[in-house]
Design goal:
- There is one protein chain.
- The chain is mainly alpha-helical and about 90 residues long.
- It has one domain.
- Helix content is about 75%, strand content about 0%.
- It has 4 helices and no strands.
């Protein structure tokens, strides 16, 4: 198997097993862990991620756990894509 397929495989595995079923608090922890890795992220990805995290936190405070989880899962997905792209670009 080519090393170029590894990021795609990792992305798919994390997409299907990611933080979709976790509590919003756990999702925030996963998001913070990704952010601490300090990989490159586009301005658009950063803006969308910030918006989704803020929305997720607001929904959580309002007691809308399911909606909060969905927003945070979307933010996590964007961050994983950015991390995977950074990992792929380093391997070239």
């Amino acid at each position: 198997m080519s090393l170029r397929l590894l990021p795609a495989i990792l992305f798919l595995a994390l997409t299907f097993t990611g933080c979709g079923d976790s509590s919003p608090q756990s999702q925030l922890s996963d998001i913070n862990e990704l952010l601490s890795k300090d990989f490159p992220i586009t301005t658009e990805q950063k803006a969308e991620t910030d918006k989704l995290i803020s929305e997720g936190k607001r929904l959580l405070q309002e007691g809308k756990t399911s909606e909060s989880s969905q927003a945070l899962a979307s933010a996590f997905k964007i961050l994983k894509q950015a991390e995977d792209a950074a990992m792929f670009n380093k391997s070239e």
